[in-house]
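Backbones bend. Our protein:
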Amino acid sequence: MTGATGFVGGATLRQAVAAGWHVRALTRRSQPEQEGITWIAGALDQPDSLAELAGGSDVVMHIAGVVNVPTRAAFEAGNATATAHMVDAARGAGVTRFIHVSSLAAREKDLSNYSWSKARAETIVQASGLDWTIVRPPAVFGPGDTEMLDMFRMARRGIALVPNGRLSVIHVDELARLLVALAGDRDASIGAIYEPDDGRAKGWSHRSFARAIGRAVGRHHVSTLATPALLLKAGGRIDTFVRRSRAKLTPDRARYIAHPDWVVAEGACPPADLWRPEIDTGDALAETVRWYRRENWL
């Protein structure tokens, strides 16, 4: 498993171990010993460590990726090239089952550098000759997430700046449960591209999701202000100028956020006998708020 020290990977690691899998997990830093886990020191640009990671495995699960780096070359290295290295490691180790975590962004390869790099990674997986399955999560939330934290903070204050358009969402534990289910699925999902979500038909408007977050933080009324695409893109330039490498809203990310349709495609969800959403989104948002508060993030 790659990405096991991250948000989605960490949740998947916990569920995989709980399900009885022994996981070989890649890490850059020393990790405490845990039953059911063998930590492999290395990185996605170190082929020897990837060969050790894949060796003796039944399934390779590639979760790691980059979402907010400054250049197209950095996106290519972190998403496309890293995927190619992991595919090579799987083939070299004789592992045929390959589960790749992509993004809905891959549907819009010309939208941004991030989208292009995720689409490029999918192309590499599809050409690998392996028994692959690709999962394209929508917006992922849950305890430990930093990407949506600002939205929770705005909702707590009773006002939220939101883009126009719609999105689908999924709780991190629901996504992890799907990935673990795929690890044990040897037939039906091979060659499939799945877009899982919380089961809400046609997704959420950004306004309605901001209001749902508001209810979770105890705000029964949240004023939502639509943020035009031009303003988002200007904000991306300003944040990059002010915070430089620490910018959260880069021009590339602004183009991604401003896109009006991040709803999963109809008919692209996994088959119900393999996986279906079980957690109510309102309950999951409330759980996320409780975690943020315990950790003094909110």
